[in-house]
Amino acid sequence: MKHSTLLLAATLAAATLAVAPVADAAPQVTPETATLSFDCGSYGSGTATLKAAQDGTAATIEVSTEAITAPVPIAADSVESTLTLAKNGSGTTTFTGNANPAIPAGGAVSTGPLNGTVAAGDSLEAASLTVVVFGVTAECTATSPQDPGPFVF
Fold first, then answer.
1. DSSP track, 65-87
2. Rounded distance, CA 120 to CA 29, Å?
3. d(CA 56, CA 2)
4. DSSP structure class, residue 22
5. Sequence-ordered alpha helix ranges (H) in the chain
6. In this predicted structure, what is the pLDDT of residue 104?
7. Predicted pLDDT at 8
8. Fewer beta carbons within 10 Å, N or C terminal of the chain?
9. DSSP character at residue 76
């Protein structure tokens, strides 16, 4: 009898595990997408869309902004960018990279994924964007808060 009771207990435990919900092991950033406005001085001003993703402590942000347009066609992976974000209300962190799609003349600048490191609970809000194309640097400053709010990792 003891053998059959042990077998029944093991079967019930296995069945319980089989129907238990699976926890999502990968942390998720919220929101995944935010918008804000940038002023890039003589290069222009306008809105930007930021898309964030997270894999553990590694995070990426893609930036697309109409604040800067390409005067000539720009080849893929030739834009160097640094996005500076306010971190947890004090201090800053940066996301950097030189990935971008090909951008036609007159097209809005898109850059990313820009790479950075995060910790659980980090709250990040874009403060500035530096874009270097063909040795020319455009410095952009955020002129509005992120909507719907900071990225929380």
1. EEEEE-SS-B-TT--EEEEEEEE
2. 10
3. 45
4. P
5. 2-19
6. 96
7. 35
8. N
9. T
